[in-house]
Amino acid sequence: MIRRMTNRRVLTDAPLLDAAAGRTPSRRPVWFMRQAGRSLPEYREIRANIGMLESCFRPDLLAEITMQPVRRHDVDAAILFSDIVVPLKAAGVDLDIVPGRGPVVAHPVRTAADIDALPGFDPDQVAAVVEGIGAILGELTDRQALIGFAGAPFTLASYLIEGGPSRNHERTKALMHSEPALWDRLMSRIDPLITGFLRAQIDAGVDAVQLFDSWAGFLTERDYRRHVLPHSARILGAIADAGVPRIHFGVGTGELLGAMAAAGTEVVGVDWRMPLDIAARRISAALQDDDPADGRGDSARALQGNLDPAILFAGESAVQAEVRRILAEADRAIDRGDARGHIFNLGHGVLPDTDADAITRTVDFVHAQPPAPR
Ligand code: 1CP
């Protein structure tokens, strides 16, 4: 067995890790996707004169921005301040993150020659991220987990093929359907970049990882299973031996939750459109269909989610009513044996104009509720 150098902390009382593993946490873990970012005045200040991507390669800055929401909101996890396009940029793909728009790729990838010209991954290219992770780990308490992440191959492929954010992902789907062999070749070229980036973060000591397949919800389940799942499964399988919980998340993925769980994950992220008890039922049913020998307990996964980010604009009593509903749905799923635990989160990222105090109050309210039963 190859033993890797690891800086991972041994955390025996971190609520997020307990919930992910099906143990009873000391309190209901909560963190928010995009918790670092424009909702925080301290983030706007630090980013005033520095580009998004530049800040992702400055260890001091990425560590400071990662810690800002942890200090302010007392969330149970930090998520590395980075972006899904960072490994592409690090490897030498000509791209930028354009304010108000998102990642823009200078030369979209559409032909066999474009695909073959994509660079490989060398861990030295993300040395700054590794250094930043070391600084973050030095600041977190042993109850706070650090989540590393990467974009999943479908979502990354969409940015590469479309050349930027896309409303319909039409060129991506066109390649998938008209030239499936070329599609597989592209996915296989992206795979080492994603796996390498995740491995670098894991070796640097992150406590959990999230694979963001943000745009997978644009696919039918059939296309997802045929053209995407094998590639995401290969990536998740490649890090299975690391022993860190794997979280798999996408938006609008109600129809894909079973398939996304089957890709190999301890925690399934659910967007706000589907109640968590229904999501859990779909996940456990799909996993049993895939592997009927599975006992019921083995087909349950932990859930993450799923407050609609827009509700944070609706005032405290509306937020509390929705939080209560979501906790009750999660607890029902756990009671029924369809889920193993619950990590509270939004159903997608914090919207930029969200009032930071509304986030803090929501975290406090979740923490004041009992942790999920077992
Ligand atoms: O200047 C800025 O502040 C730009 C806004 C911004 C930020 C704060 C971008 C551009 N990326 C980020 C950081 C980021 N990106 C994080 C930070 C950690 C945290 O959550 O606090 C994470 C996890 C991401 C991951 C990411 N980037 C995803 C997956 C998550 C999701 O939101 O679905 C995606 C799809 C991206 C692409 C991206 N980067 C930035 C934007 C505006 C976008 C989306 C563009 C689009 O709609 O296609």
From TrEMBL:
Which cell locations does it reside in?
Cytoplasm
Q: List each copy of the Uroporphyrinogen decarboxylase (URO-D) domain by range.
A: 29-38, 147-163
What Gene3D superfamilies does this protein map onto? 3.20.20.210
Query: Its Enzyme Commission number?
Result: 4.1.1.37
Q: Chief subcellular site? A: cytoplasm
Q: Name one GO biological process term.
A: protoporphyrinogen IX biosynthetic process
**Pathway given in the UniProt record:** Porphyrin-containing compound metabolism; protoporphyrin-IX biosynthesis; coproporphyrinogen-III from 5-aminolevulinate: step 4/4
GO CC terms: cytosol
Report the function annotation for this chain.
Catalyzes the decarboxylation of four acetate groups of uroporphyrinogen-III to yield coproporphyrinogen-III.
Subunit and partners: Homodimer.
Task: Kindly provide the name given to this protein in its UniProt entry.
Answer: Uroporphyrinogen decarboxylase
What organism is recorded for this protein? Corynebacterium sphenisci DSM 44792
Source gene? hemE
